[in-house]
Model the fold of this input.
Amino acid sequence: MNVDQLILFVFVCCLSSRFADAYDPVDPNGNIIINWDFQSIENVYTVMVSVHNHQLYRHIEQPGWRLSWRWAGNEIIWGMTGAEATEQGNCHRIRGATRPHCCEKQPVIVDLPPGTPYNNQVSSCCRGGVLSSLTQNNRTSTAAFQMVVGGFRRATYHDGDRGPALPSRFGVGVPGYSCSNATKVNATRSPIGRHRHVQSLLTWQVTCTYSQFMEAASPTCCVSLSSFYNSTIVPCPRCSCGCPRSPTAPQCISEGEKPELPAGDGEAVAPVFRCTDHMCPVRVHWHVKISYREYWRVKVTITNYNQVKNYSDWNLVVQHPNLRSLTQLFSFNYQPLIEYGTLNDTGMFWGIQYYNEMMLQDGNVQTEMILKKDKSDFTFSGGWAFPRRVYFDGHECVMPPPDQYPLLPNGGPDSRVSAAQLIASSCLLLPFIFLIM
Done:
């Protein structure tokens, strides 16, 4: 294989990794699992529906999940605890004094808010649709509600068992997620109250996976770099998340202007950014601060340019080979993400509760970390001191091209462009090539 063929091969690999549907190399097994655990199946059935976020660093923030599906027959929801349908629908065909909770063919279910009366709660409900990531808080990464359903038709499954017909067209109501069809799996246990579990008679399961390209055609964060040994500050690449004042760019305001605040009806609001060359709502700055004899020090600053949004329970994922020797960290929580054997080059950072777990509008959070120099591979040359990948709130950030990284004082600029630099730059430009096409 000659050099041109090698470059083409790696270029295609970059393309497939950037746009591959629902595959994340940092969290290859991450997904959202929805279980339907049947507690009774007679003329009506009682089912506990639970939503489990098995993603290491992606979380569901406000306005929260909105679970939906399409019934297979003429099902109606007679009662619901721990959540509610957004619409009752047309229930005129139902006779009797008791009115159903929902008669919609495609119901949309939302979580109840905190503070809901206890008699309308089930275990793990009532957090306003918010799901923590598995790493940040595995106790609040699950939601649940209970339904009483009637009017269903029965069907025969692939294994020969009979039960209610499977719904279809599942969704979680969060951009970027797509869900599989429901399948019958081995029956599981479901919680009833805080300490009691019951064996389910039947369990359905739905798997939902995330794709950044499905959520947004352009990135939402970028990275800038600096170091103590070079006065140059490498900014985020221009137009990282869109070009200023372009028709497709989000609304931006100049310094000193005040944005129009949203009404606050609980729905997601359109972003309003401070106008920048990169037009990203979030910038991550990595500064190589000090070099000691056996250690080196890094300062990381995350800046929120969004004028109308606070980032609650934010998190930052960084890939760097020296994270395995992280010695001390200030102001953030940290957990290594080890998904490939013993390879420890990726870590997750997030805020400290009641201190900096929320990043305010037009504000920032920052930390410093001390890392031990691994004599086998530590160097300040060749961009080694800078991260390989950076994710903010589950979104991969745009990195500067490698040939623009701060150089050591004794390292002059090289006018030649290597094959590796050409490939890396091409990968960064791929999203915008597809937008132009």
Summary: Residues 419-436 form the longest helix (18 residues). Residues 286 and 300 are 5 Å apart (CA to CA). Residues 219-258+270-436 form a domain with the Immunoglobulin-like fold (CATH 2.60.40.290).
